[in-house]
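Deviations from the work plan: none for this task. Representative record:
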Amino acid sequence: QQQVRQSPQSLTVWEGETAILNCSYENSAFDYFPWYQQFPGEGPALLISILSVSDKKEDGRFTIFFNKREKKLSLHIADSQPGDSATYFCAASRRGSALGRLHFGAGTQLIVIP
Amino acid sequence: EAAVTQSPRNKVAVTGGKVTLSCNQTNNHNNMYWYRQDTGHGLRLIHYSYGAGSTEKGDIPDGYKASRPSQENFSLILELATPSQTSVYFCASGDMGSSYEQYFGPGTRLTVL
């Protein structure tokens, strides 16, 4: 069973536009939600994360909006740049777990056209 | 800076052969993880470890073994490789005591013919 779902699978935007990547999850016990960014040929790297006690987290051009009631979150990339072209993974975890395992979505491939 | 390295970066194996993928981390993290990445599936957890000498099964352990001989090293072993194991494999390390971030290696592309 897919615990974390992402949409769309692929997204193309023009440079300067805001890209919106969506994520939903099944397990209401999840309370930590990181987004990882992956460039071709590299491993994923943490981009930004949010805890379930917050409904918004900003870091420069990247903002997470979180809706606990609906078990949904989204990553907004403002003023998209060609260098933002990458695959973005939403993940979820339960912080109380000693393992700290992450459940990953299938990813959204973002293409930013100059 | 956090560092996770993997070897080899690319591997071609024959069906039925034995394959060992190696991972080394210099973060002094207790936890290490092996994932495989396939289009449409994201990252799926194969095996993980809490520390030297421990290995645990993840979500898709069938056909894989793991070994954690030291804090720094974590290996993934395919005793009898099959074409369905063709994938990109990522190792990661993390320490739940300080943060929940996992640090990933650059990946190993494995092709089983």
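Chain B has one domain: 4-97.
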